[in-house]
Amino acid sequence: xxxxxxxxxxxxxxxxxxxxxxxxxxxxxxxxxxxxxxxxxxxxxxxxxxxxxxxxxxxxxxxxxxxxxxxxxxxxxxxxxxxxxxxxxxxxxxxxxxxxxxxxxxxxxxxxxxxxxxxxxxxxxxxxxxxxxxxxxxxxxxxxxxxxxxxxxxxxxxxxxxxxxxxxxxxxxxxxxxxxxxxxxxxxxxxxxxxxxxxxxxxxxxxxxxxxxxxxxxxxxxxxxxxxxxxxxxxxxxxxxxxxxxxxxxxxxxxxxxxxxxxxxxxxxxxxxxxxxxxxxxxxxxxxxxxxxxxxxxxxxxxxxxxxxxxxxxxxxxxxxxxxxxxxxxxxxxxxxxxxxxxxxxxxxxxxxxxxxxxxxxxxxxxxxxxxxxxxxxxxxxxxxxxxxxxxxxxxxxxxxxxxxxxxxxxxxxxxxxxxxxxxxxx
Length: 427
Description:
By secondary structure, the chain is mostly beta strands.
């Protein structure tokens, strides 16, 4: 079989390869995925090899003899969970290497070994985990790669990559106290997924001043997902460019960075620490606003300039301190609102605030199709003022477990398309 070019030994159960394998003088592709082979030294004799895949094998150390595979184009060592060593002066000898995959390998990288990767002039795809961020060579990320999935720091077990991100071509993850400077990160080409984790040893919070240059380069260009997380405190900021969605969880809103998301369409706030949101820029494209369990937030007034295109408003907080939800002037700006849902807020007595003026006022929710008010223990009415409300598009009205609500509003009410109301009083 000297002319054999492709050999697939998937799941091979023996601990060593047959000595006769070096007779395959023309072998170009060798697959030993999920094999039990421990000694791969003989593979170094297959000098015509172009593709070598050892995914999920039990290899413990990469043999020095592999440096003889100077024609190798692809080397896949993904998820070799016992592989802890990579000898010096081996990687640099694989001069034709284009694709190099080492994700899921607990390799204890040294500076010299990582520096060799920069010498691979034809390398276009790279996947690897670097736990010790102190061994990174300077300008390690300066190399132009078409495809990469690189994590720097203790990511492998703490922050496993999400399944919905795997298909992206260019992923970079690093911890905020790593030796990777933000200047270097900004120099990385065409990153699609950028994840930054706060180290448990780092006392500082998200630094807007330091992060701003990174946002200038990345947001609204090639970046599909940006995520900052503090796993210990369960704090998270995530931007998804395809849906134009920003999620902020269990932290203060970084107003300075928020200004970079000028085309934001969906904003999700979970347990934010702000009592009020000052300096919030005009979110002209905002269509969906979710405010969930933000117990300290006292008002949504700062959002009012961003409501002209809002289509969905969802407010939910089990024991929140929200005192003001919608003023009459804010209500008039909700011209595009199609759905409003207010749930589990103990302090609300009304949805649209009565400002105490004696004059009547006409308030029209032109496009509101669904209004849901549930589990509002102290809600008395939609509005206590003598205002005239018109809901020309309202078709679904749900009032559930609002025991103190006796009337919708004392003023006039127009709902030409509303034929059924779902009402349940009991808590």
